[in-house]
Amino acid sequence: MSAAIDSATGKSTTSSWSPLKNKLFRALWLATVASNIGTWMHDVGAGWMMTSLSSDPFMVALVQAATSLPMFLFALPSGVLADIVDRRKYLLFAQIWMLLTAAALSGFAFAGMVTPEILLGATFFLGVGAAMAAPPFQAIVPELVPKEDLASAVALNSLGINISRAIGPALAGLILSFAGPAVVFMLNALSVLGVVAVLYFWKSAPRVQRLPAEHFLPAVRAGLRYVHAAPVLRVVLIRAVAFFTFGSAAWALLPLVARNELGLGAGGYGILLACIGVGAVTGAVLLPRLRKRFSTDGLAIGATLLFAASMLALAMLKDAVLLGIVLLFSGFAWIAMLSILNVGAQRSSAGWVKARALAVYLVVFFGAMAAGSAIWGQTAGKFGTPTALIIAAIGMVLSCATALRWRLDLTPDLNLTPSAHLQKHHLADEPAHDSGPVMITVEYRIAAENAEQFKTAIHAMRHVRRRGGALTWGIFEDVAQPGRYIETFVVESWLEHLRQHDRFTENDKAITLRAHSFHQGPDAPVTEHFIAPR
Q1: Helix crossing, 506-516 with 461-468: angle to 10°?
Q2: What does the alpha-carbon distance between residue 218 and residue 220 come to, in Å, rounded to a whole number?
Q3: What number of other Cβ atoms are within 10 A of residue 177's Cβ?
Q4: Residue 443, SS3 per DSSP
Q5: How far is CA 395 from CA 252, 400, 475, in A?
Q6: What 8-state DSSP symbol labels residue 431?
Q7: Residues 280-325: pLDDT tens digits?
Q8: Most buried pick, 18, 22, 240, 270, via CB within 10 A?
Q9: What is the end-to-end Cα distance of the chain in Å, rounded?
Q10: What is the structure's pLDDT at 359?
Q11: Shortest CA distance to 58 belongs to which of 218, 256, 278?
């Protein structure tokens, strides 16, 4: 049930399995695999049960939408909370929420009281729990393992998710055939208990903060400003929308293909989903080698075309065995694209805002999945399931054109580790934290022959200031003194300006030093602070 972003970042000289030597990480990893198996069992059980409750393709597709929509609605607030509250307690609350929801749905199913509305509502509330859990789960990984094992730990999370993807659907199909959906929902509830136990007994070290914790709404604004000023992350989000909007058709309509087009039972449907899972596990194992041989965009385009081909097969093939083989490639393509986009989102997110930035990625991912599921369900209702899948496949092929404008290969390699701010203020009388707005000016003296290079360098500072929390930014040249430039930016309070210093990264430092290198004189550029009077 616990959600995690399955990605791999960075390189490590340690063993891929070394994080499992850590007792806490190993316990949480095993518990999460079991919980994710339960999640996949619920997804299969809910999708299959809806085909029995309603023959309307739109209602069947709404199961996928009910799973995805909560992440779209609540991932960002959850990311904000994960950055400002105790992550262990917040995760524990999310797990208990999902445990109670799954148990309630199981009770309704045993009593024979499940309606389409109850099924969609329970699935939605389970999605809310997943939305609460995803950002803090991702953010606590660095707390569980040493820095040198971090890349391996994230890769193991990816492997665990795909193992559960392979086991859960097949197990659910078997249980549906012999015991019915009520038992599937009950096992999903029980699968959460391991994660609850690990989180309950884990005593995390308290986070030491030099400044007061952020308030909720300012933290939301800071997170959104960061995303807006992070070009690499914006490229990832655009490419995610292009892929997932069309890719959602396969997940939303597969239950209808299995039951109506192939005449399969619950067991056969579970096996088809298991084929996707096996393909995903294979992809997770082979991706490191493929990354060495192909460019990021080349691999992304290949994965997109392969998934589009699998959707065409889903629309046209009437042989379950052949379709199962095709779905192996579908799972491979899906995990490849997920990994590429997740790596991009990970490496473009600074530590202080990581949960929020990754939450925005989740919002885009699941928003595209939810909207796409509804769209393709409506299309299947009007024109038939095969036609909807063919249209989605064509759209996915056309989406490859986004690689021409938004290249993942051209994004820079960022060093987002914290760094000392270059412009420390030394004030005898420190303003109150709530004083503001605050305008900061930085004065540069630039030789005429360096003016054009300086302008290029200083405009890169706009992203640095906006990522750190600036509301506005500008650069101006003195008409009376050519070569005298004033950089200005405004933050909403003195406390926010102090936070800018804490948010400064090595990448920000490199950009700042580049701009400062054109400044003439023995001293650094002069920085001044102005506070709006009240």
Answers
A1: 140
A2: 5
A3: 14
A4: strand
A5: 16, 9, 43
A6: P
A7: 878 877 877 887 888 888 999 999 999 999 999 999 988 889 999 9
A8: 270
A9: 50
A10: 84
A11: 256
216 and 81 in contact (C-beta within 8 Å)? Answer: yes
DSSP state of 519: B
Enter the DSSP assignment of 476: E
Amino acid (one-letter) located at 346: Q
CA-based nearest residue to 214, from 356, 363, 346: 356
The span from the CA of 265 to the CA of 269, in Å, is: 6
Number of neighbours of residue 504 by Cβ within 10 angstroms: 22
> What are 318-323's contacts with CB under 8 Å, separation 24+?
318/261, 318/262, 320/262, 320/264, 320/268, 320/272, 323/257, 323/262, 323/272
- Tokens, residue 213: 């914790």
Residue 408 CA to residue 247 CA, distance in Å, equals: 19
Burial class (CB within 10 angstroms; exposed 0-12, middle 13-18, buried 19+) of 205: exposed
* 3-class SS letters over 129-177: HHHHHHHHHHHHHHHHCCHHHHHHHHHHHHHHHHHHHHHHHHHHHHHHH
CA–CA distance, 437 with 270 (Å, rounded to integer): 58
Distances (CA, A) of 16 to 32, 154, 156, 309, 434: 18, 10, 8, 33, 47
Decide if pLDDT at 190 tops 50. yes
Could you identify the residue written with the tokens 């759209």? 395
Token readout for 155 is 């890769």
Q: Report CA dihedral (144, 149, 153, 154) to the nearest 10 degrees.
A: 110
The total number of residues written for the chain in this structure? 534
pTM: 0.76
Residue 243: which of 361, 414, 67, 379 has the closest Cα?
361
* Cα atoms in the Cβ-side hemisphere of radius 13 Å centred on 382: 7
Burial of 521 (C-beta count, 10 Å sphere; 0-12/13-18/19+)? exposed
Q: Whole-angstrom Cα distance, residue 155 to residue 5? A: 10
For residue 398, give the amino acid letter.
L
CA distance linking residue 235 with residue 392, whole number of Å: 22
Give CA angle at 177 (172, 182), nearest 5°: 65
Distances (CA, A) of 426 to 429, 430, 528, 529: 9, 9, 10, 11
Summarize pLDDT for 456-501 with one digit per residue, the tens. Answer: 999 999 999 998 889 999 999 999 999 999 999 999 999 888 888 8
